[in-house]
Amino acid sequence: RQIPRNMLMLYPHAYQSLIFNRIASRRIKEFGLKLIPGDLVYVEQEQLEAVEEQTQQCEALEEQKEEEPNDEHLEVPEGDEALEEESVFKRKVRPLTAEDIASGKYKLSDVVLPLPGHDITYPSNECGAWYEEMLAEVGLSSDQLKHKEKTYALAGAYRKMIISSSDLKWSFRMYNSPEDTLIASDWELLKNIPVAPEPAEAEANYMALLLEFSLPTAAYATMFLRELLKQDTSSASQTQLEKQAMAKE
After folding, report:
1. Rounded to whole angstroms, how far apart are CA atoms 209 and 207?
2. Bridge partners (DSSP) listed for residue 93
3. What predicted TM-score, i.e. pTM, was given to this entire model?
4. 73 falls within a domain
């Protein structure tokens, strides 16, 4: 194999992301911004800890059975046999019921969608079937994503269907030149470079929108801005906007 593994994995991971994006778009298009039974959410921390504890007990019992295969008094707790067949990762999520939705405890930002894989739980509604449909388009199934060669095995993962910022702050600021410093960077603070004084609105040439927000890991500010402003955030579009602004001077 000529391609390094880290680079090679970009291709299957990109395919997983493509499926996720298609599922998320179709989910919102067909069902809107409301919760539906079968949507997946992460289980509460207490439940997850209980699941992991049960799994550890099953593993300990399995080791004990291997050491004492003729012990007739060794009993497996009821329900643990099924737990052995299901990984902890599959039980990190659970489907919402109609009662969960009616309780008002959950919102759309709690819903997760899986990246396709052999070791995840799919939604128990129409969305779950869409995964197999899309995988079948390229001759795949979830079972085929399990491979003895680690490089080609895709276990899957979970991502929030939508991400929102809870600490968004915004303000307008007037300025005269595209080269004016509107927000001091760390480097400018170290160099004591002053922020350009804000001119009066009647005297200013431009108005800037200043945004301050936080996003969780693996969420991109460029995508947040695109959705917030409903404007193309590609480098080509931004370059064109800059040229237009410079031409006005």
Report:
1. 7
2. 42
3. 0.72
4. no
